[in-house]
């Protein structure tokens, strides 16, 4: 009878360990993604914009991270119009949440806002 030798199991990193073994193919693919993101100007992000007062009026827009809030407002209004949802006015402001009292500065960059979900509503009349 032939005795089979038991092969030791490959060691796995512990649950909290950050050590990973990466193959050359994985390293190549990740470096290509980094180069492509740098060529795009830093990358893109998926942003959700909801119309205030409606739970179902929501659009998702892919934006460059260096785009401004005013660019996002224009893109969201265009996306609403493309779906056949026409808003009462083009004079809108973007808010970080439904409970926010102050709108976002239109010259602020999307990457600096720290959020991806926004509320669109008419500007307050002064």
Q: What would you note in describing this structure?
A:
The relative contact order is 0.17. The chain has two helices and four strands; from the N terminus they run H-E-E-H-E-E. It is α+β, with helices and mostly antiparallel strands and 126 residues long. Strand 1 (44-51) and strand 2 form a beta hairpin. Residues 1-25 are annotated as: Disordered. Residues 44-121 form the DUF7054 domain. Pfam families: DUF7054.
Q: What's a quick, concise take on this entry?
A:
The protein is of the alpha+beta class and about 130 residues long. The chain is about 25% helix and about 20% strand. The protein is built from two helices and four strands.
Kindly list the characteristics that best describe this protein.
126 residues; alpha+beta; Ubiquitin-like (UB roll); four-stranded mixed sheet; 2 helices; 4 strands; 20% strand; elongated
């Amino acid at each position: 009878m032939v005795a089979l030798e038991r092969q030791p199991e490959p060691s796995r990193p512990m649950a909290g360990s950050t050590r990973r073994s990466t193959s050359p193919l994985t390293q190549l693919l990740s470096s290509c993604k980094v180069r492509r993101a740098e060529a795009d100007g830093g990358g893109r992000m998926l942003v959700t914009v909801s119309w205030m007062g409606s739970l179902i009026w929501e659009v998702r827009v892919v934006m460059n991270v260096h785009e401004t809030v005013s660019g996002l407002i224009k893109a969201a209004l265009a996306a609403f119009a493309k779906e056949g949802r026409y808003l009462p006015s083009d004079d809108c402001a973007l808010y970080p949440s439904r409970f926010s009292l102050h709108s976002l500065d239109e010259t602020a960059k999307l990457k600096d806002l720290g959020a991806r979900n926004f509320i669109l509503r008419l500007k307050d009349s002064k």
